Amino acid sequence: MNDPVESTEKRSRGRPRGWHDKTEQNTIKSLDRAIVVLQRLGELGAVTLTDLASDLGQSPATVYRVLVTFQNRELVDFDDRAQLWSVGPGAFLIGATFLRRTSLVERARPILRALMQETGETANLGIERNGEVLFVSQVETHSNIRAFFPPGTVSEMHASGIGKALLAFMAEERRDAILSAQPLTPYTAQTLIQPEALIEDLEISRDRGYAFDADEKTDGMRCIAAPVFDAFGEPVAGISVSGPTVRVTDEDIDGLAQAVKTAARTLSIAMGASV
């Protein structure tokens, strides 16, 4: 005879048995309409009941009941003097739980894998740590000739695609502090070691949305990288593809850059960014 406790545990699951059914029976319409009100309030900022109801095309009485319900849970605030509604601290606390559970490496893994499959080149994920690039994840290409940056590898930022992508989008004060901390190492004849030339390259990278390492760390190897942003719009990581010059040709750059930018944008959205 089965243990009743064990049977209960086996029956436990995250969704009911019919969860694949996407019909209206699985949707609480009133809750869905209420969430629309909250989302729109977040987009508009502080707003009067009249203006919010007009924007949503709903009656003020209906919207008011939704707002009061949210107010009781501190999801919205009401300024009695100005007669304005706005998103409250309760909504922030719920959002903060999402940020706490967000794992950069975990969320990046399927994106890196898809990027490698699309481009045929090694896909990398790196972050800035103590003024250097720390590679935290990689999906290698199946080609014999390939770049190899195992997790834990560090690189100077000025000679790295990911490093330049992060430098291009970070605050100037932080960028300048990193670049002036020590002399820039000339790894190859193409390495940008003059601050003026490097900053010009970073400005170009920012304008086009990606950085390009053209044989600057290793002769015969190229890298295209784009930044990943968090919920606060700050660059917290970089995604790149890297490979030999014979495969990453001048004609291939535009297509590879678009794929990298798309991957970086996908991960940014997963990290809570509004892009």
From TrEMBL:
Residues 28-89 form the HTH iclR-type domain. InterPro entries: GAF-like_dom_sf (IPR029016), HTH_MetabolicPath_Reg (IPR050707), TransRegBhcR (IPR054844), Tscrpt_reg_IclR_C (IPR014757), Tscrpt_reg_IclR_N (IPR005471), WH-like_DNA-bd_sf (IPR036388), WH_DNA-bd_sf (IPR036390). PANTHER family: HELIX-TURN-HELIX TRANSCRIPTIONAL REGULATOR, ICLR FAMILY, HTH-TYPE TRANSCRIPTIONAL REPRESSOR ALLR. It comes from the Bacteria. One of its GO terms (biological process) is negative regulation of DNA-templated transcription. Keywords: DNA-binding, Transcription, Transcription regulation. The lineage of its organism: Bacteria, Pseudomonadati, Pseudomonadota, Alphaproteobacteria, Rhodobacterales. SUPFAM superfamilies: GAF domain-like (SSF55781), Winged helix' DNA-binding domain (SSF46785). This is Acetate operon repressor. One of its GO terms (molecular function) is DNA-binding transcription factor activity. Residues 90-273 form the IclR-ED domain. It comes from Falsiruegeria litorea R37. Residues 1-24 are annotated as: Disordered.
